[in-house]
Amino acid sequence: MNNQFIIATSAIIALGGAAFFVLNRDQEPAYPTLLDNLPKSSFAVEQTLPDDLSAWIAKTPLSNPWTPHKDASRDQIVFTNENEIFPFLEGWETDFPSLMDDDFLENTHLTFKDPEYGESIAMAAILKEPQEVFLSSSYSGFANPIFSGVNITNPQSVSARLSDMGINFDNESQKESILWVSRSPALEDMMLLFNQNGGLVYAVAIGCNRAEVQPCLEKIKDIRQELGLSGLADADISAENVDFQGSGNSSALVNSSPVDVYLDPRPDDPMKRLIGSGALKIPFLNDWQTEEGDGAYTFSKQGEAGPATIRISSQEVSLSSEDELSELTSQHPDYTVYKKTDSILGINPDTYILAKESQLDERTVGQAVTSLQPGKLVIFDYSYPIGDADLSSTIKKAVHYSYYSD
Question: Please, what CATH class does the domain formed by 289-402 belong to?
């Protein structure tokens, strides 16, 4: 694949008109979600945000900015190969799931053809609700045959892997890291600066030869100074502090990839289990200890005041899809009804969780029941020390964001 920017435009036809809908059903109650009362993000801090995010990101001291959208008329769609060159483009995430367009007040990027640092990119976003943001450690996709000339029946894959290089700052309301970026099929590595201060997130990636890191670090310092970024001390941005292997400890990288849980017998095809097909996906528990047996999974983790456990099992049921909630509430009349958010990949917006909690022997004990597949309930039995907000939050997020993968 040729690592050069390409632009293509295509005219589109817009059809205008008005539509009027009448919904002959009672308005649904405003059910809460399990996430409503979780501890608020420590990144909700007061700060001064740029008045013009595009003008602010343009202050990034790199040469030859590339703006293919600038001259496109309103009836054209602009196609570029930016996502092939930078697979991590605007890959902002929470700990789970990925951020959606509605999560941003503004979200922009600017690419450069810099004569010294090659094809580089700066990304910036302002969040509607400040929360901690991450980048994934890996990205993958397929090259666009329009730009790359690849066989459409055998498209060329593009990928990027981000890794820690040992230069990090994190004070629980602001964080900054410098990361390595390895890309395929591109041969050159990149050095990426990630910075979050409250609701403002910024990242810039420049070409960098790992054998000559100090010039790259000096450029990172220039960028930080020009944009007025805070976090890392200049003394920390030094080649002697670089971990060339990557320790994987950076708080800039997301670490809550879902765990595969098989509540049915293992698939006959071992490849299905290898790629997670047919699994119940459970995020946030990938650093918990796991035990599998008798058609259930038990996760456990030691907290400061004692252990937390969550047991995940299933039950075959016969539910009418038209009135599933009514049948669930009749079976669990003393449970509180919660609703899953509709931004979760693979989740029907009318998916509900029924749950209740009690306190016993200095522990909170709870059960949550939900139907994520026709004819099957998923049951979460859990307990944790009373007052342990971190463990409580982890369990509730794991339940809320669970989903099946076919």
Answer: alpha beta
CATH 3.40.1000.10 domain span(s) along the chain: 289-402
Q: Could you count the other beta carbons within 10 Å of the beta carbon of residue 397?
A: 20
Angle at 36 between CA 35 and CA 42, to 5 degrees: 80
- pLDDT tens readout for residues 178-191: 999 988 877 788 99
* Cβ-based burial of 205 (10 A; exposed 0-12, middle 13-18, buried ≥19): buried
Sign of CA dihedral 251, 254, 255, 256: positive
The DSSP string of 362-374 is TEEEEEEEEEEET
Give the mean pLDDT of the chain. Answer: 82
User: Tokens 């306190």 correspond to what residue?
Assistant: 359
Residue type, 95: D
Q: Distance between CA 156 and CA 160 in Å, rounded?
A: 14
Place of tokens 């038209």: 322
Q: Is the pTM of this model over 0.85?
A: no
Whole-number Å distance between alpha carbons of 252 and 178: 9
Of 33, 127, 137, nearest to 347 by C-alpha is 33
Alpha carbons 105 and 120: distance in angstroms, whole number: 24
pLDDT digits over 214-257, tens only?
999 999 999 999 999 999 999 999 998 888 776 667 889 987 77
Place of tokens 């570029």: 80
